[in-house]
Each structure stands twice: as structure tokens, then as C-alpha cells.
Design brief:
Distance between the termini: 35 Å
CATH class of the largest domain: Alpha Beta
Number of helices: 12
Shape: globular
Number of strands: 19
Largest sheet: 5 strands, antiparallel
CATH architecture of the largest domain: 3-Layer(aba) Sandwich
CATH superfamily of the largest domain: DD-peptidase/beta-lactamase superfamily
Radius of gyration: 27 Å
Strand order of the largest sheet: 2-1-19-18-17
Strand content: 15-25%
Structural class: alpha+beta
Helix content: 25-40%
């Protein structure tokens, strides 16, 4: 072969390689263009945007924009909390609630000269509506049967709800006043029950600004007073807010509800779940002819707490569903309460946790040991409800990548994240696009905050982990969501 022919072949090869390289660059360029277009959009010019995409197998960074910027992640933080809980507690872990008694049972009279104690183990599913096996009062029936089988016919003492496991600071300190009285602001409790919620039923007016009427409150909570300032309006969703602190029984509610509604439901957070659990058991026992002293808690009775040195004897244990089931619902339905319990229980498990003095940065320290650069990582709760939280898109992708490639819980974690366009809070995203069936994502939103993170299998068969976090955008959440859909679809269409 002549030198001339060698040169021609080399030129053809180089041109072909150059063309191939341009195609590869162009593919990445399409993603970068989509992010650039988002940043230049008038609705996002004031926003902080963090974006990071990485191939989970090769480690190649596909796209990055402000990927180290610390931003409020909203509910995408649940991806971190659930990953941490899986690694620390294990997928088969079950929460446990113990029914105990102190004192002695007179075998002749059936009188218990002592107390019944409901010892909370941090179970977020006790009486929860989210599981078929927990959404009834079966746990109360089981407790009543256990007390009867122990030969107890009368309790010469109290029924005590023991919520000391997590301490008495039930709401994360960085949550806002606007959040904590509402259903999404129900805080974790050592003895949680019925998702720590109650429901107010409203009848609304047929005219704008017309008054609303509270029809009933379920369950009935002794002492609860609701000051109603909600008006009716031409809207299509609940835009009311309940204000009230933990352990207080005065609630103020204002805002707006849709016109012409009957028994319209608005959910609020229980003031004292442990006390309500004790009251519920007292009522159940009375229905079955077993009487007792008052229903109370250790928090309400420091004297009982100080004298609680007697041996506690077990009557019954109630177990939660397995952790893997709780985690799936946490990510699918974005349940703040579940996430906060996972956060607390993981913190408790690590080592001699004290709720008042324990390591508040335990998640940060846990992932630091796995190789994560935690600079700029600030976590003040487990659910992402606090606006004080701060993480970067790159940090979130690190955890996603770790869970897919290094964790023994990889498949459980992966399938706990819903398919875009089909499931969970992303059910209506990216309909009719290649993202459907190929992208799993957790959504997150607060006022002027929107975020998505998860996994995508691209057209070329590559598996990517991604995170996009946007703070302080200047448009409606629905419009912001539509604009972000373009980014997500572009990732699914990636053909490099």
C-alpha cells in the first residue's frame, strides 16, 4: 500500500472519529442546552438551580450545573433518609410496641393493683391507614384480649402512654409555625397512633367569601377546640391552614376551601398521640367491662415517672410491617411522618442515642464514612419539610449511585422509588414520553422549591442517577413542573 493510500485512510478515519465525537458531544450538549434554557427562562432567572447526572456503572459525569450548590431539597431528602434507614436498620426490621403492667394481679378478684403501660417503640404504623393490616382498631382489640387473658378484671391504677423513646420534642425545631398544625406537619412520637392525625369535616358556602361550618371532628379528641376562620372560594383544592403547637388543644384554622362542599375533609396533627392512645385503650377496656383509673402519660405525670422503678411485666407485643414496606410507602406517597420516624429510629440505633444530646448530624457522619464529601450538607429533619435543610445535587446522586452499586439493599431501595408517569407522586409526570417505564423518581416541593431525583434507563441502555433541585423560582409550581418535565424527558431520550 502506497504512502498516499495510508494518508487517505488516515484522513477518512480521523474524519469519521471526529464525526463520532461530535455526535457524542452533541448528545451531552442536548442535556446542557435544556438546562441552559431553563436557567435563562424568566421564571428561573432568580432561582438557584443544582443539576447533576452520572452514569452509575462507569461513573462518567453526563451533565453538571451548579452541582455543589447547597439547596433545600424538599421531599427528595426522603431518598437520603430511607437509604440511611435501610443501611442502619435493615430491610426486615420491625418496630415494636409493648403492652406491660406493673404491680400484682389478685387471682381471686382479678384486680390489678398497678398500672397498664403502653410502651412506645417508635412505630409509625400503629393504626395507620396506609397498611391493610394496621388501618383498623385491631391492635386495641389485641391489647384488650391480652389484658383479659392475664386475668385482669379491674385496674386499680392508670393507663399510661409511654412516649419517652424519642423525648418530648415531637416536632423538629426547624419546622415552621405554618406547618406543624397540619397533616403534613405531624411530628414523630415515641407512641404514634393513627398517623398522628385527626380530620375536620366542613360544609362550605355557595358564595365566594361565604362562611364555612365545622360539621364534626374525627376521632373525637377530648378538650380540642377549633377556632374556624375558613372561607369558601372558587378554588379546586384545600388551601386552609391549621395553627397549633404540640400538646396544646386550641387550634386556629384559616384560609379557603372550595365552594358547595359537604363533609369536606381537612386533616390536622394530633396534639398528644401518646395520651390519645391511652384514652383509646381505656375506652376499649370499658366497652369490655374492664374499668381503670385515668388515662395519662409519663410527660403529664412527673411523679409517676420518678417512681417508675417497678418491674414491667409483658402482656403483648405489637409489631409493624417490615421496614422495606414502610420505606416504599414513604417514597411513593411522600409521608413526612414515616420519614421522621425512620430518621429517629436510625439515630437511636447507631449508639446509645439520647434524644436531647445525641448526634444530630448522624446522617452526615454516616455517609461521610462511605466517601461522601459532605461540605454544605445541612440536615435538620428526615422528611425535607424544613427549609433549613441544604444538600447539593451531587451529594444526592452519590447516595443514589451507592445504593444501586454497593448496597445489599439495592433492589429494595430501587423499587421503593416510583415510576414516572405511573406511580406515586410522579404519576402524572412525563405522560406519553420515553421516561414512562424507564425513569424512577422522587419528587419534592415546598413554596418556590421543586426537586426531582432518581434513576433513568436511557434509549442507549445506560443507567443514570440524576438530581435537579430548584429554589426560589418565580412562577406557579405547576408551570415549573411542566418546564422540568422537558429536562427529565431529555434524560430518558439520551442516546449516547
Amino acid at each position: 500500500m502506497t504512502v498516499k493510500k495510508h494518508i487517505i485512510i488516515l484522513i477518512v478515519f480521523l474524519n469519521s472519529f471526529n464525526l463520532f465525537s461530535q455526535i457524542l458531544v452533541k448528545q451531552n450538549h442536548i442535556i446542557n442546552l435544556a438546562i441552559k434554557a431553563l436557567k435563562n427562562d424568566n421564571s428561573f432567572k432568580t432561582a438557584g438551580i443544582g443539576f447533576y447526572v452520572q452514569d452509575i456503572n462507569s461513573g462518567e459525569v453526563i451533565s453538571s450545573f451548579n452541582s455543589d450548590l447547597s439547596l433545600a431539597p424538599a421531599s427528595t431528602q426522603k431518598l437520603i433518609t430511607t437509604a440511611t434507614a435501610l443501611e442502619i436498620l435493615g430491610s426486615n426490621y420491625k418496630f415494636k410496641t409493648r403492652l406491660e403492667y406493673t404491680g400484682k394481679i389478685d387471682k381471686n378478684t382479678g384486680i390489678l393493683d398497678g398500672n397498664i403501660i403502653i410502651k412506645g417503640g417508635g412505630d409509625p404504623t400503629l393504626g395507620s391507614k396506609y397498611f391493610s393490616e394496621t388501618k383498623t382498631q385491631k391492635f386495641l382489640d389485641n391489647w384488650a384480649i391480652a389484658i383479659y387473658k392475664a386475668g385482669i378484671k379491674y385496674i386499680n391504677g392508670n393507663i399510661i402512654g409511654d412516649a419517652r423513646l424519642y423525648g418530648y420534642q415531637t416536632v423538629p425545631p426547624k419546622w415552621t409555625w405554618e406547618d406543624m398544625g397540619n397533616y403534613f406537619g405531624a411530628g414523630p412520637n415515641g407512641l404514634t397512633v393513627y398517623d398522628n392525625l385527626y380530620t375536620i369535616y366542613f360544609n362550605t358556602s355557595s358564595v365566594k367569601s361565604g362562611k364555612t361550618k365545622i360539621v364534626k371532628i374525627e376521632p373525637e379528641i377530648p378538650g380540642l377546640q377549633v377556632d374556624n376562620h375558613v372561607i369558601s372560594d372558587a378554588i379546586h383544592s384545600d388551601q386552609s391552614y391549621i395553627f397549633g403547637a404540640p400538646y396544646t388543644y386550641e387550634r386556629y384554622i384559616n384560609g379557603r376551601l372550595p365552594l358547595n362542599k359537604t363533609n369536606y375533609k381537612v386533616k390536622g396533627s394530633l396534639p398528644d398521640p401518646a395520651l390519645y392512645t391511652a384514652l383509646s385503650l381505656k375506652k376499649k377496656l370499658k366497652e369490655n367491662g374492664i374499668y381503670s383509673g385515668k388515662a395519662t402519660t409519663f410527660r403529664l405525670n412527673p411523679d409517676i415517672t420518678a417512681s417508675d422503678t417497678l418491674i414491667h411485666k409483658l402482656l403483648y407485643k405489637t409489631y409493624s410491617p417490615e421496614l422495606k414496606e414502610i420505606i416504599k410507602l414513604t417514597n411513593f406517597k411522600s409521608i413526612n411522618l414515616f420519614a421522621e420516624h425512620l430518621y429517629k429510629q436510625s439515630q437511636l440505633k447507631l449508639a446509645n442515642f439520647n434524644p436531647e444530646t445525641g448526634d444530630k448530624k448522624f446522617i452526615k457522619h454516616f455517609w461521610q464514612k462511605k466517601g461522601l464529601n459532605t461540605a454544605g450538607m445541612f440536615l435538620f429533619d428526615g422528611s425535607g419539610l424544613s427549609r433549613y435543610n441544604g444538600i447539593s445535587a451531587k451529594q444526592l446522586v452519590f447516595i443514589l449511585k451507592y445504593m444501586k452499586t454497593k448496597s445489599k439493599n439495592s433492589e429494595i431501595y430501587y423499587t421503593s422509588i416510583p415510576f414516572v408517569g405511573k406511580e406515586g407522586t410522579v404519576k402524572y409526570m412525563c405522560k406519553g414520553t420515553s421516561a414512562v417505564n424507564n425513569m424512577r423518581a422522587k419528587s419534592g416541593s415546598l413554596k418556590n422549591v421543586i426537586a426531582y431525583a432518581g434513576y433513568v434507563k436511557t434509549k442507549s441502555g445506560r443507567e443514570l442517577a440524576f438530581s435537579i433541585i430548584i429554589n426560589n423560582f418565580n412562577c406557579s409550581s405547576s408551570l415549573a413542573r411542566k418546564k422540568i418535565e422537558n429536562i427529565l424527558t431529555t434524560l430518558a431520550d439520551f442516546n449516547k
